[in-house]
Structure formats: C-alpha cells, structure tokens
Amino acid sequence: MRWECFLLGFGWLMGTAAVAAPVLMSNVAPWAIESAKYGIDGVNVRLIKALSQRSGVPLVPTVVPTARHLAAFKGRQDAYSLSLATNLSDEDGAVVGRVATYPVVLVAMATQPMANYEDFVKSSNRGVGVLRALKYEPLSSDSRVSKVDIATLESGLRMLVAGRLDAVVATLPAIQYQLRSMGGTASPNQFLRVSESTWVLRARPQIDMAQRAQLAQALAEMMRDGTVERIVTQFLQEPVSVDP
Predict the structure, then answer these.
(1) Any bridge partners for residue 203, and if so which?
(2) pLDDT surpassing 50 at residue 244
(3) What is the pLDDT, as a whole number, of residue 12?
(4) What stretches of the chain show up as alpha helix (H) in DSSP?
(5) 1 pLDDT exceeds 50?
(6) If 0-12 CB within 10 Å is exposed, 13-18 middle and 19+ buried, where does residue 224 land?
(7) CA-based diameter of the chain, in Å?
(8) What angle in degrees, to the nearest 10, is found between the helix axes of 227-237 and 209-224?
(9) Strand-pair category, 190-203 with 94-108
(10) pLDDT band at residue 83, thresholds of 50, 70 and 90?
C-alpha cells in the first residue's frame, strides 16, 4: 500500500513538473557555440541561463545552425528564439524583449576601396559573404551587391583572405571574436559600419501570455541592473572558446 501511494505521488509530481521550453539560437560565435572541446557556451547561452534563473521559467538553450533555427522556430508551438530582429517576423513570434544592439560591419582587406558604403558598392565585384539565412540591412536588400552564402564566419573570412570575396558582413563582436580564434598575420583590417542589429527574444504565439510577461519583466530587470552588459562584456574578454 505504501509503495502504491509513493508511486502515485511520484507520478503526480512528474506530471505537474514544469517542462523546460527550448530557446533556439544560431551556432555563431560568440553568441552561441557548440564545441566538441568546450560544450555549449556563448553570450546568448549564458543570457538565457541567467534569465531562466531570474524569472523562474525553465528554459533550455538550444544551439543549432541558423537555417535550422529559423525553420524549427516557425514549426514549433513551444519554442522561444533569441536572434536578430530582422530574421523573424512578428507573425512568426511576438517580441518578449530586446536584449542588445550591436554594430553591423563590412570587413575587408586593406586593398579594398571602402571609404564609405557607396564607395564599397561601386568597387565590389566578387561579392560579400553573408551567413546563410541571415539578413543584414541595408546590404541584404541592395541588389547592386552580390551576396555569397557562407556556412560559418570562419569559412567566409578565409575566402576573404584568399581573395574570393570583397568583404564579409556580420556584427562587429562576432567578426572580432572569429578573427581572434583564427590568428595569423594576413587578416582583414578594414571595418565599415553599415547599420545596427538588435537581438530580441521572441515567443511563439501559442506560448502562455503570463509566462511571456514573467520573462519580459525579468529581462527588463536584467537590462536595468547591468546583468546583460556584464554577461556580454565578461564573455567577450575571455579567451576564445571555439575549436582550433
């Protein structure tokens, strides 16, 4: 009888335990990194862990390739997404809160004319490397510039050094982090700021409004008290944690 009561009680606890919601994020250093050597880490991974602890909402950072991230988010009912605001629409998921804003830059070799954006456009003939499925305005909408899909920033930067691209576009911290991890002397050293990108946390429409509000409040608190800024600054100052 006692065992039956124990099993019934255990089953009740298991049935009522909160299920952790996945927070999808793209595998792009330094935001989210899935490394054989270091495991899962990155700015966004740490932010979501801190947000989960602060809000009391169980969340699981889920690091996937960018194209899979965007498709998986649209195909699920229980997911959140932490990504650039331009990569998903409000129909795909409602914005729970803004996380951070970073400069978007073109990076090129010293020989590339790049006094300003128009100067670059006129001289570009080999194309700009853009991470697959991501959008960086105004470049993504500019038909005068050829865009070349790159699987990773590392592969794009190596193509740039080899003379196969005119430039690579991404957020400045991501490019700087990747260049640090690559090392070497023949590195791109021209940077042109073209816009800004804002990272936002989105929720699928089916997710409970009360839970969204709980996360929004906690995220706003983390922004106000400097928690978000500390997490970002600390990670970017650490040694690179991508596989060599």
Answers:
(1) 80, 94
(2) no
(3) 42
(4) 2-16, 43-55, 66-75, 117-123, 153-161, 172-182, 209-224, 227-237
(5) no
(6) exposed
(7) 82
(8) 70
(9) antiparallel
(10) very high
Dihedral-angle region of residue 133 (phi above 0 means left; psi in -120 to 50 means alpha; beta otherwise): left
Name the more confident of 90 and 37. 90
How many residues are recorded in the chain?
244
Contacts of 77 by beta carbon, 8 Å cutoff, 6+ apart: 204, 206, 207
pLDDT tens per residue across span 165-197: 999 999 999 998 888 888 765 577 889 999 998
Q: Are 40 and 23 in contact (CB under 8 A)?
A: no
User: pLDDT of 190-221, one tens digit each?
Assistant: 899 999 989 999 999 999 999 999 999 999 99
The three-class DSSP label of residue 141 is helix
Residue type for 65, please? P
Contact 192, 110 (CB under 8 A): no
> d(Cα 84, Cα 134) in Å, to the nearest integer?
8
Please give the domain boundaries of the chain with CATH numbers for all domains. 19-101+198-237 (3.40.190.10), 102-196 (3.40.190.10)
Q: HSE of 127 in the Cβ direction (CA atoms, 13 Å)?
A: 12
Contacts of 120 by beta carbon, 8 Å cutoff, 6+ apart: 106, 108, 112, 113, 114, 166, 167, 192
Average pLDDT, the chain: 87
* Among the listed residues 217, 206, 109, 199, the one whose alpha carbon sits nearest the alpha carbon of residue 163: 109
CA dihedral (36, 18, 50, 216) in degrees, to 10, reads: 130
- Prediction pTM value: 0.82
